[in-house]
Amino acid sequence: MSDSHVYTPYHPRWLRRRVSTYWWLQKWSYFRFILREGSCLFVGWFVLYMLLLVNAVGKGPDSYARILEWSAEPWVLGLNVVSFLFVAFHAVTFFEAVPQALVVHIGRTRVPGRLVMAAHYMAWALASVLIAWLIVGA
Amino acid sequence: MADHITLQVARYRPEQQSDITFDEYEVPCPKEWVVLDGLNHIKDRLDGTLSYRWSCRMGICGSCGMNVNGEPKLTCATFLADYAPGPIRVEPLPNFPVIRDLIVDIGDFMQKLVRVKPWIMRQTEKPVSEGEYRQTPEELDEYKQFSMCINCMLCYAACPIYGLDPKFLGPAAIALAQRYNLDSRDEGASDRMAVLSEHEGIWGCTFVGECTKVCPKHVDPAGAIQRYKLTAALESMKAIFMPRGA
Q: 4Fe-4S ferredoxin-type domain spans which residues (chain B) (predicted)?
C-alpha cells in the first residue's frame, strides 16, 4: 500500500501488505491480462511488417521479391506466426469487451450484448473476405 | 459429507505481531452453513478474541467481505460445504490496510465514494406541489444494474490496479457515479466528470475485468468504466470540434 493516505500517519500499527511482484501469476485472468498488455509489442511489429510489405509492393517486383525472400527466413517466419496468434488473441479479447463498453439502442430497445459482439465478428469476417478478394481474386 | 471442516483464519493482533499468522479451527459443516456461520461459531464457542465485521447475513449490507481461499467473497453467501473436505483459508480483503484479524480499513473507499457525488443532483428543484420525478421502466433499466452495488469492496480487493496504485478511484465508486449519470432524474453528470475523467479516474483502469467477476450483485463495474471512457472521449471530441456547445 502507498503511504500517501491521510490516515496513514495516525495508525502506524495497521498492516499494509505489499502486492507481490508476481501478482499476475496468481490467477489465470491476471495472467491473461498481462499477456494481452505485453503482447501489444507483437501487434506493433505486425503493423510495421504490413507497412514494409506495402512499401515493397509500391517499389516494384524486385523489391517485393526481396521482402518475400527475407520473410521466408526462419526467424522472420517464426516471429510472424507468433505475432499473428497474438493479433488474433487481441481481436478476440477486444470483441469480448465490446458489449461491456458499447450499449446500443434501437428505438427504446436495448440490443443484447451477444448481438453487438456478433455484429463485430461479422464485420471482421466481411473485411477479411474483401481484403482476400482484393489480393487474390481481383 | 464430512461433519466438520477446518478453517485457517488469518490473525493480526497489532500489539503483538507485525504480520499475519494463521490459526486453525474445526467447525461444524452442515450443508446450510456459510463461512460466516463458521466464524460466528469460532467467536462464540472456540476463541472470543477473533475480530471480523458482519451484519445482515443475507448479502445486503456488504460488510462481511473477506478472501476465501484466495477469492474475495461475501462470507454470508459462501457455503462451507462447497469447499469440503477443506481446509478453507479465510483472510482479510487484500489491497486494504488491516486493522485487526479480518477487519480492514475502508476509509479510503469512503473518501472516494463521496468525491463522485453518488446522489441525484438537480440544477433546479421543482416544488413538491408539482409531484414526483416520474420515470419509465426503460429509464429505470438504464441504471438499475449499477444501483445494486452494496459497497462490499470485493471489486477493490480483486483489482490489481488498485493494489498497485491506491490513488485509483476504483470500480465501485465509478459504477456508482454511472448509476446516477444514467438516471433520467439526475442533472449532475457534468459535475462528476472532472473527478471521473482525471488520470486516477476511469483512465487508471486497464480493464483486467476481475471486479466484474467477483461482484456478488452482478453490477459489472468494468462495463461501467468502459462505457464512461466512451462517454468521456466523445465529450472531449465535442469540446474540440464544438467549443461553443452543440
A: 139-169
